[in-house]
Amino acid sequence: MKMIRVLCVDDSALMRQLMTEIVNSHPDMEMVASAPDPLVARELIKQFNPDVLTLDVEMPNMDGLDFLEKLMRLRPMPVVMVSSLTGRGSEVTLRALELGAVDFITKPSLGIREGMLSYSQLIGEKLRAASRARLGIRKLAAAPAILKSVPLLGSEKLIAIGASTGGTEAIRHVLQPLPASSPALLITQHMPPGFTRSFAERLNKLCQITVKEAEDGERVLPGHAYIAPGAMHLELVRSGANYQVKLNEGPPVNRHKPSVDVLFNSVAQFAGRNAIGVILTGMGNDGAAGLVHMKQAGAWTIAQSEASCVVFGMPREAIVLGAASEVVDLHEISQHMLAKMSAVQALRI
Predict the structure, then answer these.
(1) Model pTM score
(2) How far from each other are the two terminal CA atoms of the chain, in whole angstroms?
(3) pLDDT per residue as tens digits for the range 167-219
(4) Where are the active-site residues found (predicted)?
(5) pLDDT tier, 153 (very low <50, low <70, confident <90, very high otherwise)
(6) DSSP one-letter code for 327
(7) 18 with 67, same domain?
(8) How many CB atoms lie within 10 A of CB 197?
(9) Catalytic residue IDs
(10) Using CA of residue 185, residue 190, residue 193, residue 196, what is the dihedral sign?
(11) Do 223 and 286 fall into the same domain?
């Protein structure tokens, strides 16, 4: 069994100790070294050649973002950011994902051992996924051109998107080309509380459509994208002739909250063939069964191609189940969604 070699960069000695204990508790990985700042880390990377780097967001001597930017330019490698649940922390973390970090994890409440087992398991999963991540696909993320407006689409047409590891950038790449006349979009990205609002606000500044964190009971409108809040399931429901957002505080599904399966199952039930389902990069199998249900209900379904995924987990599981009507490279998904919606509407005129 090949060991995953990890290097931790964090200015907190306590966090370095905790991360070392957690990493070394997994039989398939080891902490080869730890550094209090990026300057020390630079030499340790040369010495130990780690498979994955865990990187604190805010550190002395050199900001985590500056170090990440230099690292991705000079010595690209999988990086998992370790972030605090603060407004500044979430903004910097999202910027780090844009610069090439594979994933992030929030810092635990130090001194509180309850829940450390599940936290350790989560770190293990993220490091394993990061060690297998495809870094070359970042070249696809250049800002795409805005697509031409499609024929008027009624509010009954909508798109459901699910993603996990690598999904923040994949979602940006799908949303950024969409015209203001785009159908409504409901999006579940595996993300903890404290980050989804910043994620939505960042996308809203970059896109022609309006992007916002979803609110319970609000009407689903064309030209809008609704992001599932962290720790809340996002569902589609009907209110008369209109679609509405429903937020659900139920238990995790497939160990995730929000869960892509919860979103896709609700869209299959209430939108059927009026919807398109898209499953993007991510580890695990969340969303695969829900995409099957969408396809069975008459929806057109798209899985991101392996070549364009950071982690080809969720799309692969969907493809294995026969859930995907087509498999598409990331940079072509926006065009495929709108073309399919336009074709569906033309058939019904």
Answers:
(1) 0.91
(2) 59
(3) 999 999 999 999 999 999 999 999 998 899 999 999 999 999 999 999 999 99
(4) 164, 190, 286
(5) very low
(6) E
(7) yes
(8) 16
(9) 164, 190, 286
(10) negative
(11) yes
